[in-house]
Amino acid sequence: MIRMRVAAVLAACAGLAVLALLPVYADAYHLALAIGLLQFTVLATAWGLFSGPTRYVSLATTAFFGVGAYTVAVLGELLAWPLVLLIASAIGAVMAVIVGISTLRLSGLHFVIFTFGLAELVRQLVIWYEVNKTRVLGRYVFVDITQSDIYWQLLALAAAVFLIGWMIARSRLGFALRIIGEDETVAKHCGINVTIAKVALFAISAVFMTLVGAVMAPRWTYIEPSIAFNATISFEVVIMALLGGAHRLWGPALGAIPLTLLFEVLAARFPTASTLIMGVVFLLIVYALPSGVVGLWDDFARRAPAPEAKA
Which residues contact 220 (CB under 8 A, 6 or more apart)? Predict the structure, then answer.
């Protein structure tokens, strides 16, 4: 068992080293594609950190993503880049704690509707502030960050979200959240502080989403609310996580990679019908793969005959 873990760690490190070299050899198009893949891998995995064990479907991804992007737009020219990312993380965490304390008592459809409304509320607040206070609706982002820098930072975020997810799954918090996902009443009777557990993981998930928005902001050069708070991001992340299987740490990545490539093709060839096709894909995933690719694999593994023991 120890040898297998060591081998897995070495394989992961080797894979990261190979991926880190990609900007050296890739052309502009493939680097941009790799950035998109990493972006949605981190977003979908971060979404799965909270929604996987708790089974809460959140559509607030774009709210945190947009906050991160606008933090860079406002502070990018004034402060050092690490400090800007730190401030963005803090804002995302505080917003998640406030939202979590006030809404995580909701469940099911009510929580879905609230999180969708939250993203729209934050977008409208940003629009109101920009129009009434700054007198401009959009902002230019002048930050000395290259495409390669964006790729490497997203790669670091991907490594961090998998590492933290692995640690949480093996911690008391992860165990508590799995019980909460099965039955909150039972979790309360077991002495678990349900509110603190859910809010803590919601905040961790939100920090990663906020950081992705902050890292991606320099790629656009110009940001306005319709770009930063694009509701499509939230739906794409949910579809990706459900396709791969949100109940496993690496499941959302299995959905993020093929669907990012699919959406890239759809946007290029069918720009007017891409949203419609995305909706059809979502319905097919929910109907045909309710537990995702990981669930399908688990079912296959359970049904496979066990090897006979040798005499």
Answer: 69, 141, 227
CA distance 147 to 51: 31
- State which H helix or E strand residue 54 sits in: helix 28-54
Tens of pLDDT, residues 20-29: 888 888 888 8
Q: Which residue has the tokens 């400090």?
A: 83
- Contacting residues for 92 by C-beta, under 8 A, at least 6 apart: 64, 67, 68, 206, 207, 209, 210, 211
- CA proximity to 176, closest of 195, 204, 203: 195
d(CA 160, CA 166): 10
Instruction: Please give the angle made by the CA atoms of 264, 297 and 253, to the nearest 5 degrees.
Output: 35
Rounded to whole angstroms, the Cα distance separating 6 from 74 reads 44
The neighbour count for residue 29, using CB atoms within 10 Å, is 8
- 3-class SS shares of the chain: helix, strand, coil, % to 5: 80, 0, 20
The 10s digit of each residue's pLDDT in 52-73 is 888 888 889 999 999 999 999 9
